[in-house]
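Q&A log
Question type: sequence-to-structure
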Amino acid sequence: MSKTSEPILIAGGGIGGLTAALALLQRGVDVRVFEQAAELREVGAGLQLSPNALRALFGLGLEPAIRAVASEPSAKEVRLWSTGQTWKLFDLGASAVQTYGFPYFMIYRPDLHAALANAVKALSPQAIVLGASVASFAQDEQGVTVALADGRQVRGAALVGADGVHSKTRGQLHGADRPVFSGCVAWRGVIPVAKLPEALRRPVGSNWVGPGAHVIHYPLRGGQLVNFVGIVERSDWQVESWTERGTHEECHRDFAGWHDDVHTMIECLEVPFKWALMGREPLAKWSQGRATLLGDACHPTLPFLAQGAVMAIEDGFVLARCVDHWPTDLPRAFGRYEQLRIERTSEIVRRSTENGRRFHNPALADAEGAAAYVDREWSAAKVHERYDWLFRYAVDEVEI
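Response status: OK
Response body:
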């Protein structure tokens, strides 16, 4: 028997929705996850899982599954766009475990998605409903009724909108979305490591910084793949989609004058995808009665702190703890969940935007000025101030 009168309904079967589903199921709460895709899969891109994320995922019993497919970098570094000059940002590996109690992993998004989906299905084979898009919902004092795009109606105890940056649940709760183009376009893709020279196979996370652009790359799947993300300031592409294909030639042009290592990676991309980065102000309120939001649906962020998926994972874990505490008063549970999460996630959104400006500063244009800028902006004290509060967050210790 579920701790709630009916299943909790979750719109969206991405990382955040599946984390919430797994955490709820483990606490004896039945769920139904409605995923619009006909098959359960994620787009091919890399994710960084900092210690705060792995605390949650390991707490859900996923450590063996994640260790089997992740890469553990030894360090993160900053490199200069033109010369390749390198500065160590911070040590990872054993150092991260010693400092934060958990490691820092890089993982291929489809691999994490599969680990979560398999764990959910092992507990509840019927929990994930494919080919089912939540179009709208209505709520009353006893529960919610969800209308799916194909006309079906489903009754549940509550609704969690984990339906991403274009969330229909958010639209119904809080009105039309108002994204603002950030002025940046992102290129992404994965590279089979066998295509790369030895110098680009090192087990580190690298962040190339330059005036008006930056490039991030790191290993995936135990070093079998390399994830590439290049972000450049330009105004002529404003399509917010992860699946729009670009060309190698266009990507090369966006990084004209950059170090040969960057162009080697671009040339080795299997498919260069491009998408416009849109900025959004954090929502002031997420929940309304028996409906709430999670992940990108309520705090979409620019990808400059590597915390977008991590926030969704944290959300799912904390949400489940709140529901477990008030299973017969879900509006109260959702209100407490929002109260616990909204300040942290809003701050991450703001700081991520700041970090993007730091990566693209005009002071990076020449090597001499860049060295002084990097020494100042990535000093040990500033790196600690920027990241320590993120990594120390403990989803299992937040006072409910």
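Response note: DSSP finds twelve helices and 17 strands in the chain.
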